[in-house]
Amino acid sequence: MARVAKVEDAAMHLYDAIGVFLHQHGLSPDPCHYAFAFRVLSDPRGVVAQSVTAMTEGGIRLSSRDIEALGGEIGALTVTAPPPAAAAAADGLVAQTQMQVEGFTDMMQAIRADAIRNADGALGIAEVVRLTGAMLDRVRSAEDRLEAATHEASELRAKLEEARDNARRDPLTDLPNRRAFEEAFAASIAAGEQLCVAVCDIDRFKSVNDRFGHAVGDRVLKAIATALVDGCPGHFVARYGGEEFAILFTGVEREAARATLDKAREAVAGKRYRLRESDEPLGAVTFSAGLTAVQPGETLGAVFGRADALLYAAKDGGRNVLHTA
Questions:
Q1: Range of the domain at 198
Q2: What digits encode the pLDDT tens for the residues 117-159?
């Protein structure tokens, strides 16, 4: 009997302390503030209690923003919406969490009703304390579920970004592909940048495949891709399709772009390639190109068509040539 009385005295003391706490900080006796006060006073050595002590030193009252920052506002719990690819995996966790949060309101209403109904009995106060403790356990469980859902959504978002990047990259040369080039052109046009577009094509590439096989042809494609990236630093080099490459020059005039690309062309033409297996000479590998400046209001189709026509003029002019217009 003495033990019961002791428990009831402790419960009454905690209940009184919560009332004092709410009064000191000018907080209304609503369920969220009551739960926060219980969390602070029932664990005086906890992180939340120590934070409150530091924040209120000198008689400063807690504000609603302070309570929310310390995790005291249940209604502030949210989950960052996962991307479309993550929605199916995260929906279950979010739905379960939402059910728990909705249950908090019912529990707090029950606590308030019990407190009013049993205001004159120590046993009623003990029951309020017990119910509040149970509610806080459910809050922590919901927080854990929210954290898990957010973590899972972040992982799925990273995988989605990786998949998007792969969809815009050529698997052989690791260069951006045609789709990525079109997007880069649109973004540069929207930003109002000065642009030039070049279209490059490996000369007599079919004969390389016919004489040495597609494995050697793939090595040649990789070599040209590397040469264009190294020779045109700071500009957007893409494999547009087959043995054709496209380059988006940004922030430079046509003559500067021409000088850069011509230097890369000469560097490629000056190399002598050999077969890895037999050390047999592959002979010179060259490319031809067409380069044009982008005029205000032009579409990629118009610009690319003009550069492509210049490329074919270079092919007809003897190959290993760069034509501009």
A1: 178-324
A2: 554 444 456 666 777 777 777 778 777 787 877 877 778 777 7
Average pLDDT, the chain: 80
Same domain, 92 and 186: no
Q: Among 313, 306, 194, 203, which Cα is nearest to 256's?
A: 194
* Other CB atoms within 10 A of residue 87 CB: 13
Q: Left, alpha or beta for 176 (phi > 0: left; psi -120 to 50: alpha)?
A: beta
In a shared domain, residues 116 and 197 = no
Active site residues: 243
If one counts every other C-beta atom within 10 angstroms of the C-beta of residue 53, the result is 11
Tell whether 160 and 192 lie within a shared domain: no
- Distance separating alpha carbons of residues 297 and 132, to the nearest angstrom: 66
Taken in order 20, 21, 27, 32, is the CA torsion positive or negative? negative
Count helices and strands (H / E) in the chain. Answer: 11, 7
How much is the pLDDT for 68? 72
The length of the chain in residues reads 325
